[in-house]
């Protein structure tokens, strides 16, 4: 018996933030939206999936963005993603050196920190 993987990461969002979440996680980061089960959809929020990443956005009241706790997403071309992010007006902050990676941080539209990492 043991942990075999990670199903998803959940981040908080304010009520009625679904359009902003779709624009950022879907249009900017390229995740596909996944329908929430009907019972959970009543609560608001949205779910997104990538090749091996699932991110759930859930409504939290009162809302407070996660500035320290964060998902770290592996990317295959950080330079190209940075260029795309800049084209969308999204700031990228260089990360501290970490052996074997180049990395940095962005924030979603709600102020949640997201780390982007590329293996060297």
UniProtKB/TrEMBL annotation:
It comes from the Bacteria. Residues 5-119 form the VOC domain. Pfam families: Glyoxalase. This is VOC family protein.
């Amino acid at each position: 018996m043991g942990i075999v993987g990670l199903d998803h990461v959940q981040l908080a969002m304010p009520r009625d933030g679904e359009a902003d979440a779709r624009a950022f996680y879907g249009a900017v980061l390229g995740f596909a939206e996944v329908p929430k089960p009907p019972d959970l959809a009543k609560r608001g929020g949205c779910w997104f999936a990538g090749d091996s990443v699932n991110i759930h956005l859930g409504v939290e009241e009162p809302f407070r963005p996660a500035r320290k706790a964060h998902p770290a997403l592996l990317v295959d071309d950080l330079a190209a993603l940075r260029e795309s992010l800049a084209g969308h007006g999204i700031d990228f902050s260089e990360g501290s050196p970490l052996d074997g990676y180049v990395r940095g941080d962005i924030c979603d539209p709600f102020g949640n920190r997201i780390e982007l990492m590329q293996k060297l």
